[in-house]
Amino acid sequence: MPAFAGSAAEPPLADSYHALLRRHGGGDNDDGAHTAAVPVAECELPMIDVGCLTRDGGGSEAERAACAAAIARAAEEWGFFQVRNHGVAPGLLDAMRREQARLFRLPFEAKSTAGLLNDSYRWGTPTATSPRQLSWSEAFHVPLAGVSGDRCNFGDLTALRDVTREVAGAMSKLAGTLARVLAEALLAGRRPAGERFPEGCDETTCFLRLNRYPPCPVSPDAFGLVPHTDSDFLTVLCQDHVGGLQLMKGARWVAVKPIPGALIVNIGDLFQAWSNNRYKSVEHKVVTNATTERYSVAYFLCPSYDSPIGTCEEPSPYRTFTFGEYRSKVQEDVKRTGKKIGLPNFLV
């Protein structure tokens, strides 16, 4: 890995923020009210013990049925839930957190120009046209094909390579199990979901995202990650103890209380479409912390770009579309308007 002597680790987020602020005459609420000023209640998401699904041998048929019903109910009512006994070892997640910290402490130039992790480094929001569209964060958004491939550049971070591959494998197994359970709950025996559900999803199509949210001293209203829904089938998230994740529930933002050892699961846009809106892809965001950095790891269950999303049952409220079409439309809307529109674009 090239040396970058004397280079700072932090991305130039403050420069971007102040440049956007100047562009808008010193005001940063041109595109909406400051939701961060509204008191936010803390919530505990539904907690589901999925040990009967993840352990070898599993539980009884009755235990599995009760677990599946709880997962489907949470997907319908919240769009988010937590799982324990999920099969991703606590020691592995601790190692991931340590290796992430080492990765993000590298000089900014090394992260942004040295081609690390398939050249997948991202920071801020390149499409932002106002401070309210800027994400105060940095990330490596890595295709799993890159994580497992021999050509993926981990620099000198050999421990990161091993840990990342192990985390990706464990989260992939969990995500596939949960997706099939959710599909079977909707199909109700009419047809099997199949071991390959969702169709087109495998180790070459999914993503692992390593996130860091630096301290943000410039504005209490800045977003760590702007409000959005996920453009996948399912997301598995490991957040640290700092907190900052908020989701929309009943027309108001609620903060998700971090629970040690638990993983967070949320429904993505593709599952909402496939389920004919039974399962909810819920808007969520990350708020900044003035003094403390935050780390998280997210696994995104995505199909290949040419995979049709389909439906659990006809008629569907959505026209037929592929994942590639969906991604392209999202990117087009964000570039044109600064905001994601998402599923409404594909209504019949």
TrEMBL record:
UniProt keyword annotation of Phosphoprotein present: no
Keywords attached to this entry: Dioxygenase, Iron, Metal-binding, Oxidoreductase
Catalytic activity annotation: gibberellin A1 + 2-oxoglutarate + O2 = gibberellin A8 + succinate + CO2
GO molecular function list: gibberellin 2-beta-dioxygenase activity; metal ion binding
Domain Fe2OG dioxygenase: 202-303
Any Gene Ontology biological process: gibberellin metabolic process
Keyword Oxidoreductase: yes
PROSITE patterns to which the protein is assigned, alphabetical: FE2OG_OXY
Name the UniProt record assigns to this protein: gibberellin 2beta-dioxygenase
EC annotation from Swiss-Prot or TrEMBL: 1.14.11.13
Species assigned in the record: Setaria viridis (Green bristlegrass)
Signal peptide, first to last residue: none
Needed cofactors: L-ascorbate
Annotated family: Belongs to the iron/ascorbate-dependent oxidoreductase family. GA2OX subfamily.
